[in-house]
Amino acid sequence: MSKALIIEDEQQMRRLLRMLLESRGYEVCEADEGQRGLQEAAFQRPDVVLLDLGLPGMGGLDVLKRLREWSDVPVLILSVRDQETIKVQALENGADDYVTKPFGSAELLARLDVIQRRRFTRQSPEIVAGPLKVDLLHHEAQIGDEPLKLTPTEFALLKVLAEHAGRIVTQNQIVKQVWPVQTSDPSEGLRVHINHLRKKLGVRGVSIVNEPGIGYRLE
Amino acid sequence: MSKALIIEDEQQMRRLLRMLLESRGYEVCEADEGQRGLQEAAFQRPDVVLLDLGLPGMGGLDVLKRLREWSDVPVLILSVRDQETIKVQALENGADDYVTKPFGSAELLARLDVIQRRRFTRQSPEIVAGPLKVDLLHHEAQIGDEPLKLTPTEFALLKVLAEHAGRIVTQNQIVKQVWPVQTSDPSEGLRVHINHLRKKLGVRGVSIVNEPGIGYRLE
DNA sequence: GAGCGTTTTCACACCTTCTTAACGCCCCAG
DNA sequence: CTGGGGCGTTAAGAAGGTGTGAAAACGCTC
To answer: Which pLDDT band, with edges at 50, 70 and 90, does A122 fall under?
Structure first.
C-alpha cells in the first residue's frame, strides 16, 4: 500500500485526485497550503507527492525546494501553466515529472506509475565486488560489514574502480570520470588519492594494483 | 530505469527527444554543446547517448572519439546528413547505430531498444586471433582464459601483430605504429621487445615468426 | 575570520620499463 | 671456407612512472 500526499489549494481538484488515487489503491492525505504540505510530508512520510505549482502563499516551487532539503520522495508537479521555464525550474529542483492541467486521468496514473517504478529500481543502486559494496545513492562504501569513511573524491575513485572490478582501468578513464572538468595535472593528484584509498582499504580482501604505464585494477 | 544523455544544439530537437525518451521511461539529461556533453557523460553516467553529428564547436565525431577514450556507453548518432562517408566514420569510431533526421519516433525508439539490448551482451572493441584476445579499451590481452601481463610497448606491439594475424607485417609498419614519434634506431629495440613478447606468449598456440629481411607474422 | 577537513602541489626515494650496446648464432653469398 | 648481414639473447644504464610524506591551497562551517 503506497501513500500519496496531495498539496493543492482547489478543493475540487483535491477531490478528483483523491478519487483517482484511491481507485488505484493509494492511501491519500491532503494539504491545501504549502506550509501545511511540508508538515504533512514530514508527518505522513508519503511514497509520492502531488504538488500544485499555483499555490497561494508559498509558491509550489518553494515548497519543492524546501522539501528537497531533507527528502527524496518522488514529486509529481501539477500546474495550469504550460510555460517551459517553470517546468524546467521544477525539474531542476528535483521534481520527478510534470502534468499540465487539465489532464486526463489515464495520463496522470501512467506518470505516477513511472515515477513509482523509478523509485523502486532506483532504491539502492550499488556496485558489489567481492567483499566490497559501493552504494551510489547514499554515497557509502563498506567492506564486509564495516563501513568505509571516504572523502568525495575517494568515493568517486573507488566507484570507477569497482565498476570495472578485476579489470584494468586506464588512468585516462579514471581521470575523465573523477575530474570531468579538466584540471591542471591529471595523474599528479591521482597517485595521492590512490594512496589514501589504499590506506583506508587496508588489508581486508580488496586491493588496488597498479599496471605500470597503463592504469589501475581493483582485485 | 535507464538514463539517457542527449547531446544536441537545437533546442526544439532536444525537447522532442526528451519527450520521446521520457515517455519510454528513460531518465533524461541534456547538453547543447560537445564539451559540455563529455562532462555530462562523465557526471551522469548515462546508459545510452544520443549524439548529434552537426554540433557547433567540437564536431560530433570528435565528441564520439573523445568519449570512446574512456567509455563504452552505447551511442546513437543523429544527423541530417545522409552521407555514407560520415556514417561510416561514426560507426568506425565506435558508434552503435545511426539515425538520419528527420526520423520517425517509432524508428528511433526501436533502434534504442536494439542497442540497449545489445548493451548487455556487448563487449569492448577487441581483436581476436585464434586463442588470443586483445582488448583495446581495457588494455588487456589473454590467451585462452589466461591473462597476459604486458608492458605498454609490448601491448602496442602485440596489437599491431594481432591486427594482421596470419599475415606479414613489415618492420617499418610495426615501428611506425608502436613508436609514432620517430626514435633513433628503429629495428634495434624492436628485436628486444619481440623477444620479451615471445617469452610471455610461451608455447600456448600463439607464436611470432620472423620473415627474414621483411618483418614478422603472428600465427 | 578562525578552524577543520579536503584537495592539490611538491619533493624525493624507489621500482618498472625502455633503450642501447654487445655478443653469438645462423644462413647465404662470395 | 669465410665474411657479412640479419636475428636472438642478455645485461646494464637511462628514462620515466609510481609510492609516500608533508606542506600549501582551497572550501566549508561556525
So the answer is: very low
Give dist(CA B25, CA B2) in Å, integer. Answer: 8
Fill in the DSSP letter of residue A8: -
Asked whether the beta carbons of B27 and A118 are under 8 A apart, the reply is yes
Bases of chain D within 7 A of a CB of the protein: 6-11, 17-22
Chain A residues within 8 A of B47 when measuring between CB atoms: none
CA torsion, points B85, B86, B90, B93, in degrees to nearest 10? 60
Q: CB contact, 8 Å: A122 with chain B?
A: yes
Nearest CB to A118: which of B1, B138, B149? B1
d(CA B107, CA B101): 11
Of A30 and B56, more confident? A30
Our CA-based measurement puts residue B203 at a distance from the nearest CA of chain A, in whole angstroms, of 24
> What pLDDT was estimated at residue A86?
67
Partner residues linked to B77 by β-bridges: B51, B98
Asked whether the beta carbons of residue B70 and residue A176 sit closer than 8 angstroms, the reply is: yes
In our burial notation (b when 16+ CB lie closer than 10 A, e otherwise), range B23-34 reads ebebbbbbbbbb
Integer Cα distance of B133 and B143 in angstroms? 6
Q: What cell was used for A116?
A: 513509482
Which residues partner with B100 through β-bridges? B79
Determine the pLDDT at residue A81.
Answer: 61
- Residues 71-110 (B) with a CB less than 8 A from some CB of A: 71
A213/B151 touch (CB, cutoff 8 Å), yes or no: yes
Q: What is the pLDDT of residue B6?
A: 95
Distances (CA, A) of A211 to A117, B151, B155: 41, 8, 12
* pLDDT tens string B101-130: 777 777 788 788 777 766 554 555 778 888
CA–CA gap between residue A162 and residue B125 (Å, rounded): 21
Question: Is the entire prediction scored with pTM above 0.85?
Answer: no
**Min CA distance, B211 vs chain A (Å)?**
30
